[in-house]
Specification:
Blueprint lengths: L2 E6 L5 E5 L2 H10 L3 E4 L20 H14 L5 H4 L11
Antiparallel strand pairs: 1-2, 1-3
């Protein structure tokens, strides 16, 4: 069942309702003081680093570099990382 977010036109209060899709229109008709609004949620839609929204910080890159140096030749991390002017390039 979807969650719909409504805002009360008179008080400004925002409420979430769990309604069947078939009952949404009837609920809106019965509650004219409410209007449906868009609610932004914090549900992740993907990895923000891989999507390019934010970058990996240098501290994490340093940790990856230390892991690689301590694991030796068998580590595949070395194939993914390369040295650059700031130490490690983005994966």
């Amino acid at each position: 069942m979807p969650t719909y977010t409504f805002r009360n036109k008179e008080t400004g209060e925002v409420v979430d309702k769990f309604l069947q899709i078939s009952k949404r229109d009837k609920f809106i008709e019965d509650n004219p003081q409410l209007e449906q609004t868009c609610a932004y949620t914090s549900i992740p839609i993907g990895d923000p680093v891989r999507l390019g929204i934010k970058t990996t910080d240098n501290g994490f890159k340093e940790v990856l570099s230390k892991i690689h140096s301590q694991n030796g030749v068998r580590s595949t991390l070395g194939q993914k990382l390369s040295r650059s002017k700031n130490g490690i390039r983005n994966i």
